[in-house]
Amino acid sequence: MYEQIASNKRRSILLVVGALLLLGAVGYAIGLIYRAGPVGLVIALVIAGFMSIGSYRYGDKVVLASARAREVTAEQEPRLHNVVEGLAIAAGTPKPRVYIVPEQAPNAFATGRDPDHSSIAVTQGLLDTMNRVELEGVIGHEMSHVVDRDILLGTIVATLVGAVVLISEFFMRSWFWGGLGGRRGNDRGGGAAGAVLLAVGFVLLILAPIFGQLIRFAVSRQREYLADAQGALLTRYPPGLASALKKIAGSPTAMRSANNATAHLWLNQPSRVEGDKMGALEKLFNTHPPIADRIKRLEEM
Amino acid sequence: MVVLWVLLGVLLVGLAAGVFVFNRLVSLRNRVDNGWAQIDVQLRRRYDLIPNLVETVKGYAAHEREVFEEVTNARSRAMDASSVPDQASAEDQVTKGVRQLFAVAERYPDLKANQNFLALQEELTGTESKIAYARQFYNDQVMRLNTLIGSFPSNVIAKLFRFTPREFFNIEEPVRGPATVDF
After folding, report:
1. In the annotation, is A75 catalytic?
2. Could you tell me the pTM of the whole model?
3. Tally of domains in chain B
4. What residues contact A134, with CB distance under 8 A and at least 6 apart?
């Protein structure tokens, strides 16, 4: 467990340094093309610095907002709050904040940076379909992610990769508007800038699938098995989570807000496609082990 | 000269190990204390909830007097318990009493539809499971502390600074497991 925590912290730092280097290189290249010298590098590093600090401090808020999760009080959802508090006691950590995602597909995720700043979100569908023992199994799994600092790495991955998607969209859009400006015949520099932005945009678009591989590399599927096992250790009752996973596997409901930047955070791979099939792009970002495998392992415990 | 350096080295390593063991003992003792405080919080929560539950059930099933008396007596015995084993066995009786109360409630459909009763039932079920989890955490920490205190060479440091083994919070039957009733 301590090794897992150390490894997650190490990977998080590596990821942030990697993002700094990548953005710095892009900024330096843009600076060279514009003959602005090291200004591009400085600006890019400042942006990357703010992004890294932001994804560390506010990553959980971004992730929760992107899932449209809303915080609920103990009065609104007593059962969920009781279960979360119980498992926090079992793990010996402070109680995480509790959120509900307005989705019918049963699923859950945890986010934050450490046990003192953590949140657990479950979908409305999960609350409606799971009994108490199953709910405890699911929350035990999420609590293990909190204790192991999987949430730190997962949240930074989600926000930094989400930022790359945003930046690539920004470049494509500014190429579009820059292109219009060029056509109006402002100055020739606009045309050159447009070409550069187009190139960067395309590069980022090509990079997107590679980033998918990167996520899979950073958040190995092994940690889902590990969280299943640790969660079962917390509840001392593996069949609870096994039964919950069976219900999730049997649920045909699609998740409307599923996206590739946060897929790895969820209890089970969220899919926009109904049934147990996945979209082609979602398969590329497949971050979870097959659910049947996880059930089998839990049943063998 | 070389012998002196070697001796100094051994002494330093021994000292570092001693400091490490001491810090580990202190942190485990704090975790045991925290674990016990958490059990205490949840037990008190249950003491507060039981009279409310008894009153609510009485409103629908006034003649089930023995059950009410049993659970009320168990509660006051548990509140008076002083040592860890006494407390554990008294709480065991409280748990049994509460379960009996819920079993009685099963026979009264009107009571089971009462919003106040349902809220109390959720609170008590939640508190029961928090007690179980708090006990699990406490016992885990006690086991780690006692192992460290009992094994060599950490027992030397433990004896030197008077760390004493703690008592487990044991109960007769497992609260969690396949038999868990899902209300």
Report:
1. no
2. 0.81
3. 1
4. A240, A241, A243, A244, A247
